Amino acid sequence: ICDMHMQDFPLWLSEGFILNQLWFHGAFQDLYVLNPYFPPNAISQTFIALMSVVLHPFQAAQLFILLAGLFVFSGLYLYMKLSLPESPRINAAVAFAFTLNYTFFMGNMNYYFGFGFALVAFYLIRKNGLLTHGRPMWIAVPSLALLFLLAYGSHFFSIAILGLLLVIYVFREKLYCGLISMAVAALPVAGFFAHYVLVKKQYVNFE
User: Fold this and answer.
1) How far apart are CA 131 and CA 127, in angstroms?
2) CB atoms < 10 A from the CB of 41, how many?
3) What mean pLDDT is predicted for residues 132-158?
């Protein structure tokens, strides 16, 4: 099986394979310790570990690369659509031009996926009015919390980008009630990150 010619490809592929063996086969337990915290950059390893149940790890990695590319393209296209709704061809051309970027070829797939996911999540939040006055909190908060958790699991900068875009949007549109929904929805992420920071130094780094 050949390499994908990405700098970090062997790293997260091997981590996903090892995680799969630890979870489902009990292998490597005398060599590795699975740290008891949820790191903010483990989406590729987790995806490969789970998909390797039915696919070869290399095929699972290829599938993740495809999904990450689709998220980045879709995220850029949808983000531009918010500003240029009447120019779909221009939006698609620009999105495609920036999809295969430096981060992609370096193989920083957690960050790459997280960047695309943050843009898609921002579009979905705006499109569905999750921060508007008329949206009940019992709908808005769980939806926002799920998107925040997925962004956090992708990469720390993913949740940072999403949070920054939302804060700018809230203040620009004067949707100050949305800050309450955002704050409540961010509590699970804040808890996971606090636990990650406090516990991380006690264990050998997995990620």
Assistant:
1) 10
2) 20
3) 91
